[in-house]
Amino acid sequence: MNSLRNKIVAFSLVTMMAVGNIGAINAQTSANTKLKIKKESLTIVDQGMFSAGGIVVKSEGEFDPKNQWEESGKGQTKHADHANVFYQIPKDEKGLPMVFLHGYGQSRMSWMTTPDGREGWSDMFLRKGHSVFLIDEPRRGEAGQTSVVGQISDKTLDQRWYTQFRIGKWVNGKSVPNKCSQFANDDKSVDQFFRQMTPDTGMKSDMGADFDKEVVAKAVAATIDEVFEKTGKKSILVTHSQGGGPGWTATKYTDKIAAIVAIEPGGAPGKETDDFKSVINRKIPVAFYFGDYIDNGDPSIQATGMWKAMRETTYQFTKDYNAQGGKSIVYDLPKEGINGNDHFMFQNLNNGVIADHIENWIVENVK
Questions:
Q1: What pLDDT score was predicted for residue 207?
Q2: Regions of the chain where pLDDT drops below 50
Q3: Which residues does 64 contact at the CB level (< 8 Å), separation at least 6?
Q4: Which of 232, 235, 322 minimizes the C-alpha distance to 283?
Q5: Domain range list for the chain
């Protein structure tokens, strides 16, 4: 899709929006809840796509146009390791732009919809007056061109990730979500959930051990600089899971981050690290969000202990950050009266409740 930067093109996107008493979609909502929905228009005045960051690799030698199919690639270039960004700007824009970075095995689709076909956070925050910029990070999704050799795994790992994401237990070939889960658990939705998984073209490890945080961070920073060029505004960076790491590091490469909202990041930087020092030097407000089944998770499942440890790093970050004059808070959703959320809270049945919570934090803390 060509950028519409120099045009104002208004059109209506017909979307499906949950209505009724939003407060009713809370901790006690079951995965089988039938949501009443209505059609409501959302007017977009500009949308498009662009690539941000990346490198150009050039091989030695001289390219011969008369022998274009020779196999060595001598004298030729490769544009790689960039982010691909889809953006939308709403008619009633009143808040800061929001840049969304997905986690491991995911793409920007994570933010655009839910496995059961409801609105994702991208539409929800558009309705709240934010322009949204959705990243496919380098070597993922529509930014798949890589400068390094990777290997896409053919292992059957769906249940590993189902367990890691604290959705529930896989029993006799079926998804059995945790008690009071907000996961949409009908067969079609479970199938759609697994089909979101997106391979990384630059990794050889199926656990992300060779994930290049620096490459992603530079592309995220380049995206945020491009957003500033487009809008004249700093961005709120929303990260998820593995995307949390590059989010901290990106602060070394851009001063245009207004706030960071970290959704269950894979840890937070310690106070002696360069990432911590970069974030505190810029005095960026930070909010962490963690879902359910951590304190009350099954102790026999490895993920329970891992998520406790990950969350503990955010408590320590917040203590150290606030002591140095920063502003950070950890929201443990069950303590906020919001229960039943797994690692994909932005796709759960009560994703609108959490979006409202985040918007309230933004209004109160981000200038």
A1: 77
A2: 1-36
A3: 70, 75
A4: 322
A5: 11-365
